[in-house]
UniProtKB/TrEMBL annotation:
Domain Mur ligase C-terminal: 320-433
GO BP annotation list: cell division; cell wall organization; peptidoglycan biosynthetic process; regulation of cell shape
Name of encoding gene: murD
Main localisation: cytoplasm
EC number: 6.3.2.9
Alphabetical list of SUPFAM superfamilies matching this protein: MurCD N-terminal domain, MurD-like peptide ligases, catalytic domain, MurD-like peptide ligases, peptide-binding domain
Top-rank lineage group of the source organism: Bacteria
Pathway(s) it belongs to: Cell wall biogenesis; peptidoglycan biosynthesis
Matches recorded under InterPro entries: Mur-like_cat_sf (IPR036565), Mur_ligase_C (IPR004101), Mur_ligase_C_dom_sf (IPR036615), Mur_ligase_cen (IPR013221), MurD (IPR005762)
Homology family: Belongs to the MurCDEF family.
Transmembrane annotation, as ranges: none
Binding site for ATP: G121, S122, N123, G124, K125, T126, T127
This protein's name: UDP-N-acetylmuramoylalanine--D-glutamate ligase
Ranges of residues in domain Mur ligase central: 119-298
Amino acid sequence: MKKDWRNISESGSQKLVILGGGESGAGTAILGNKKGFKVFVSDQGKIKDKYKEVLLNIEVEWEELRHTEAKILDADVVMKSPGIPDTVPLVLKLKELGIPVISEIEFATAFTSAKIIGVTGSNGKTTTTKFIHHILKAGKISVGMAGNVGDSFAKQVAETKPDWFVLELSSFQLDGIENFRPEIAVLTNITPDHLDRYDYKLENYVASKFRITENQTENDFFIFDADDEIIEEWLKNNKIKAQKLPFSLEKKIENGAEIENENIVININNDQFNMPTTTLGLQGKHNTKNAMAAATVAQLLRIRKETIRESMENFQGVEHRLEKVLKINNVQYINDSKATNVNATFYALESMESETVWIVGGVDKGNVYDDLLPLVNEKVKAIICLGVDNTKLLNTFGNCVETIVETQSMSEAVTMAYRLSEKGDSVLLSPACASFDLFENYEDRGRQFKDAVRNL
């Protein structure tokens, strides 16, 4: 029978095993050690030096390049890093033994009295999380930011005591929760992504995203995109306890956020906020939605309306998301490396206002590119494939553009883009794929793009 992992003492006799020695693993080790657990960190790969240093400093036991089962299977609780699938034999074995396997988010929440704003979705998570954090800080609220951004949540819980945390949450992190309950949950959108981790079933991925609200009560709030058909369909067929606050570009919304005469209008219990969309610091439909979600949170927290407006006007967005790098020979180079799925790239192409040379490709997570065809026909003059296997891209877009080429490195792709672009064009890196075939992660891919552009 599975134990409730929270029925644990702080006597030092409880064993916390951490699978994965990265950011979340090292942070959980700091917090677990502080709370009196006997900590053991195990990583199948190599642990980065900066995390080894952390583990050595706090004097916990760790191993790399292996998982010693005897040391792992006698755990009282296991924190599994989000990158490790639930289907790994070792994880299945732990679950068979009734040993709780949880995420860092679940573990750390048990040791903080801070209120939580959780943000999930296929796209816009990071921007919305940073947006909320930006407005709350401007409103003089004591707030930390964690999850997929900044220092790990567990590390911050161990070292800081803010009144609120804004957490960017992936579906993988939500898969490992049991009791986690955000006072405010935000769901930006749902489009097919990471289906390789969900048996290629969209409904499994959707269920995973909605776990953000499963422990919420009628005193909590659920902010969501009412234009998203997948979200609307799920809500039609499933009940949630939290108070719903939708946002929409298209619909009339009584309680929540809508667009009226090019103004964002937010109504919460007859308290109204409005501002023109034209003054937003970040333009584009998707950014308007991110702004509506963030401003709805700010309204709930009763931040001054003037502060919300100013914050939304001066917010500058995030690295690797439609980031303008340089203009060379009047060609704008744009880094959208964070676009790791088709929907994110759809937004990027939609926002292009000039002829575009598009750099695309990487590890395909079950992508279907058909939705991009109209935009590619309208805006893209040449495609540069950047991946180990580009077959699907070549088959899908081969007849759309005159020029489609394959490259095997970022410098080669950028040099090719330089040759193919003309005055007034844009060069857009928006891969629609994960990065792990040629790069360490999407940040590494984005930085290599920027370096290559600067070296032209």
